[in-house]
Specification:
Elements (H helix, E strand, L loop, with lengths): L3 H19 L4 H8 L3 H9 L6 H10 L5 H10 L21 H12 L2 E6 L10 H11 L5 H14 L10 E7 H5 L5 H15 L4 E6 L13 E5 L8 E5 L4 E4 L2 H17 L3 H12 L9
Parallel strand pairs: 1-2, 2-3
Antiparallel strand pairs: 1-4, 4-5, 5-6
Length: about 290
């Protein structure tokens, strides 16, 4: 398990190494092309040292990488604030957001798909403003109103990935506890359940509920997120949240284990259609077309 910056360096290094090999270059040849010592290329490729976005651009140019989406993703992994020209809004909140949260948002903004198990709260991408405020106030003690407002703004801004021209594909398995735990009071929770039912109708969102009656399941070990990228599966990553930090798992065996776990949870859960009906009943909604 790695903290965000370390796993990002290793992933970036592995991808740059593969691109160099694909270009038919040795590390020494690549270093000469960009005017560096060979040891610098080696340190970058092993993740032993960080790399500036400008240096990544030099290497990508040397390797004749023209894929704009791949270039943007690698620049984000390098810590680029412009992502190759794209506005990364969360940098305006640097004074509010811890580094691990900024890492999470940057990966979320570039991912093509997100699979998540939630056992306690509604996924952040589907939260209403009132629900987000109640969750944030409970999770972070001693927040003043200004910082609370900023954190809620960030959570709501993250939801733009579901409305993008090429929206993030979100597949979420929700334990029934997510629907039953009353957060923010009856009115806030009622509106949140209605929001979930609305989201279930979106083509890019797939919601499935794990009812209490389904008994024990592999998700009892805790929530997790799997980010996938259309460019390359080598950049896929599992994120585990803890009270004071987030951990990132990027080894092939870890990704396979969590992917198998998520597939098992989906089989264990209600179908999207039955899950929509379940959510609608919890929200007191009658009628309306169910998803798919």
């Amino acid at each position: 398990m790695q903290h965000g910056p370390a796993v990002r360096r290793r992933k970036l290094g592995a991808e740059l190494r593969a691109l160099r090999a694909g270009a038919g270059l040795t590390s020494g040849q690549a270093a000469r092309l960009v005017g560096w010592h060979q040891s610098k290329v080696s340190r970058i490729e092993t993740g032993a040292s960080g790399v500036k976005p400008a240096d990544v651009r030099l290497l990508l140019d040397a390797y004749a990488v023209r894929d704009a989406q791949l270039r943007e993703l690698l620049l984000v992994l390098a810590g680029s604030e412009d992502g190759g020209g794209r506005d990364h809004w969360w940098h305006a909140y640097r004074g509010v957001l811890p580094p691990a949260y900024r890492d999470f948002i940057s990966l979320e903004s570039q991912a093509s798909a997100m699979r998540t198990l939630e056992t306690s709260v509604v996924p952040g991408l589907l939260q209403t403003p009132e629900y987000a405020r109640a969750v944030t106030r409970a999770a972070v003690e001693g927040l003043d109103d200004e910082r609370l407002d900023a954190l809620v703004e960030v959570r709501l801004a993250r939801q733009d990935v579901l409305r993008a021209e090429q929206p993030l594909r979100l597949s979420a398995v929700l334990d029934e506890a997510v629907l039953r735990r009353e957060i923010g009071g009856p009115e806030v929770m009622s509106r949140q359940l209605e929001r979930l039912a609305e989201a279930a109708r979106l083509p890019q969102v797939r919601l499935q509920v794990l009812p209490f009656g389904s008994g024990a399941h592999i998700g009892l070990t805790g929530p997790f997120v799997i980010f996938s990228f259309s460019n390359t599966s080598d950049l896929d990553v599992v994120v585990l949240d803890h009270l004071t930090s987030s951990l990132y798992l990027e080894r092939k065996e870890d990704l396979e284990a969590y992917t198998e776990a998520f597939d098992a949870l989906r089989r264990h859960a209600l179908s999207p259609e039955d899950s929509f009906d379940f959510i609608a009943r919890c929200a007191g909604i009658s009628g309306g077309a169910s998803p798919r």
